[in-house]
Amino acid sequence: MKLTVLTENTTGSPHLIAEHGLSLYLETKDLRLLFDTGQTDALIANAAFLGVDLGAVDLAVLSHGHYDHGGGIAAFLQHNAKAKVYHSRHAFGEHYNAVNRYIGLNPALQQENRLVPVGDSFALCPHMTLFSCNDAAFPEPVEPFGLQIMRQGRLQPDDFLHEQYLLIEEKGQRILISGCSHKGVCNLAAYFRPDVLIGGLHLSKLDPQAAEDAARLDAIAAKLLRLPTRYYTCHCTGEAQYAYLREKMGQRLSYLRTGDTLEL
């Protein structure tokens, strides 16, 4: 499998657009897949520069219902005439941040006939499956970090029913792709036991300079290191948080920026 980062918060290239968001392009032995579309149409220009033909993408996945992962859907559909976009049936809920700003998807996208809502598990092909884990008995509570959802006219802490994860089983490896890991990276790593975990870790609100937050980061690093998993992170992990975790985890943890590629 080859992975190319089309958009992410950072980049080392002056020719690529970095934005708060995430979009990954995956090539496996038998298909091409787009995982998330970033915040804007930046993935279009970046894909062109990187030599990625978005028109040849066979299918797309939306990890969850936030604007920085689904904001480029309309642009992608304009550049691709065939791919369906598979999203959680909860993705179009009303999502807000800690200061009550709407951070959900454009509701008009629901009219697109190539957007396909799926349940808690859905097989894309024999070696790729989407899971929401909404019934999983996770060992640790889910921390919303101020993210909210509107239900019955009231804002409440988001439980992330709208988040889903892509498990790829290829060449004897289990590869888990996660947009933001809102349900907790330790929970996901323990549940899926992947050989490789790729995605944002939703840790940017933890300040490594604050003793309590540093202790939480220490605990996360220790739990992740107990598993044989190799971790590649990006986006909502945070650069300072990544640097702190890297000191604890060494080469078991790497960062992926816009334009980076990874072959597994």
Please give a structural write-up.
20% of the residues lie in helices and 28% in strands. The chain has 264 residues and is of the alpha/beta class. The protein has one domain (2-263): Ribonuclease Z/Hydroxyacylglutathione hydrolase-like (Metallo-beta-lactamase, Chain A, 4-Layer Sandwich). The strands form three sheets. It has a seven-stranded mixed β-sheet. A seven-stranded mixed β-sheet has the order 8-9-12-13-14-15-16, with helices on one face. Strands 6-10-11 form a three-stranded antiparallel β-sheet, with no helix packed on it. Helix 1 links the parallel strand 3 (32-35) and strand 4. Helix 5 (211-225) packs across helix 6 (239-249).
